[in-house]
Design brief:
By secondary structure, the protein is an alpha/beta fold. The chain has ten helices and eight strands. β3, α4 and β4 (124-126) form a beta-alpha-beta unit.
């Protein structure tokens, strides 16, 4: 696989002391003002205030929580979580939340310290940790972390849906039956989606199951659906693709006679366009097969603004492009 060099700054060097000091002060103030507040929601408190990070998690919480939750997602369509910085308004939302769900595995790289600080006062759950160690993929870019793009395999997202169900039940046991019912309905929809994805990718001949994208967001997809994946940029978009990374990718698409390459909605298309031009200069016409959703879903209110719609869009786009349609 192709990966760009490890950035010179470590996660610890990227700490944001000013924001952390603000957070610490606000947490202290909140504790002083609400000394007797319970961590468990009562049946008369109204909807549980939930804050999530990426849209994929937001969508699951809304399905599983139903009317029992009021969800605020911090990152909307087209937002790259790898480089997203928490704002003061984000900190306020996190402080007002009763429970927080984020991906973990260093996806929300610049917010890791915020979640660790706030977890002392309320549940802040990294849903990626629901996956067994055997099901996690290593991150060659950051040795101490796993690949965070777990939603690319629907089977993984079913595990996450179960984790969110269990955490909501633990937080609000009075409405456990509601969460179980909602989760059962949503898990059935995900099971149907998984079967559909398997049917679609089975129509692509094995020799054509090669996915070339801007950054390494599709390894779980590759593992779950029998693809090879190549990308000049690493797992995190904080790093940049180098000239050598681009050249190696051009070598691959020319040697393998790959018909299509894909851009991503949350990543600038410059690198992909450079690969297309480089391959053309060597006599190989490779087209941009479409735009895939990787680290963010589509606009709210559109089919791609849901997890199921996002996956369906990606699979339809990949299937069509690799067949040369």
């Amino acid at each position: 696989m192709l990966h760009s060099p490890v950035p010179s700054l470590t996660p610890q060097q990227r700490r944001r002391p000013a924001l952390l000091l603000l957070l610490a002060a606000l947490l202290l103030l909140a504790a002083c003002n609400q000394p007797g507040q319970s961590a468990v929601a009562s049946s008369g408190d109204g909807p549980i205030r939930v804050v999530t990070t990426v849209g994929m998690i937001t969508d699951v919480v809304r399905h599983v929580g139903g009317e029992r939750v009021q969800v605020i997602g911090l990152m909307g369509a087209g937002v790259d979580p790898h480089v997203y910085k928490a704002t003061e308004s984000d900190v306020s939302r996190l402080l007002n939340a009763q429970i927080i769900f984020y991906n973990g595995f260093f996806l929300e790289a610049r917010m890791e310290d915020v979640f660790k600080q706030i977890a002392d006062s309320k549940p802040a759950i990294a849903v990626g940790e629901a996956l067994s160690v055997a099901d996690r993929l290593a991150s060659p870019q950051y040795a101490e972390h796993f690949d965070p793009h777990i939603w690319m395999d629907v089977k993984n997202w079913m595990v996450v849906a179960g984790k969110i169900r269990d955490e909501l039940i633990a937080f609000d046991p009075a409405h456990a039956a509601d969460y179980r019912t909602n989760a059962a309905v949503y898990l059935a929809q995900l099971q149907e989606l998984e079967a559909w994805v398997q049917q679609q990718v089975a129509t692509i001949p094995e020799e054509r199951r090669v996915l070339v994208t801007a950054h390494d967001a599709f390894h779980y997809f590759a593992k779950g659906y029998d693809f090879e994946v190549f990308a000049p940029q690493g797992i995190s978009t904080e790093s940049e693709a180098g000239v050598e990374d681009i050249r190696r990718t051009i070598d691959i698409v020319v040697q393998r006679n790959i018909p299509a390459i894909f851009v991503e909605t949350s990543v600038p298309p410059d690198v992909v366009e450079a690969i297309v031009e480089g391959a053309k200069a060597r006599g190989h016409e490779i087209r941009i097969g479409g735009s895939l959703f990787s680290d963010a879903m589509g606009e709210e209110g559109t089919p791609e603004g849901t997890y199921i719609g996002m996956i369906r869009h990606n699979v339809e786009t990949i299937t069509s492009a690799l067949w040369g349609e």
